[in-house]
User: Fold this.
Amino acid sequence: GQLHYETAGEGMPLILLHQMVQSSVQFRPALPILATKGVQAIAVDLPGYGMSTVPGHAPTMDEYASIVPAVLDHFGWNEAAIGGHHTGASAAGAAAQGYPDAVSKLVVHGVPYFTPEEMKAHAAGSHGAKPIAEDGSHFKDIWNLFHDLGKGNVSLDVSHQSVLTYFLAGETEWHGHNAVFSHDIWAAFDAVTAPTLLITNTGDMLNPQDRALSEARPDFEFKEIEGGTFQYVYDDAEPWANIVAEFVTRES
Assistant:
């Protein structure tokens, strides 16, 4: 189906994959900053999210990753750096595993690098479309979910954007997380050969998983930021973009 993307700048190509349930809007504050630093960033709506076509089935993580060659072909590139956050980090890792010649560098932040036991527990949880309440209370329920995940420290704007993208995804909003918990993330990151930057922030719920991945792959460049929330990429776009741009444009 059709893929929607937002892009800014000229220079080193960087394909950005968002966390779910969100969209390329997650990177919107970072795009103009990256553009000033010699990066052409392309933030893509993964299939079923934002304005990209909804797949006819629940995709695997490898299927999400398969958009990378299509994006490269669209721009006429042989390779690009790939960046991903949370669920997008899983997809970026799968892309680096599946298309090593196409991924010049890898940037991941908030990797769901759970133990196999944790993955099984998450997979056994409730996944599926949320019912629509006649009184509209489902809107507030999702608002509380997203805002409370940030312990009230995320901006109102990013919580608002999260709620909009959640409901835009509709009945298939659960697809992305379903793919995460059925994905062999250990094999994917074991196979990564591209120079890799692993970013984490201590206020992110996936900070322990990032630390675990850093121990499993000590060759990855590891950058830990103090504080922030799981919405760091949106709410703290300037420091995040500066870190990413320095790595992506650095000569190997």
Q: What stands out?
A: The mean pLDDT is 94. The first strand starts at residue 5 and ends at 8. The first helix runs from residue 31 to 35.
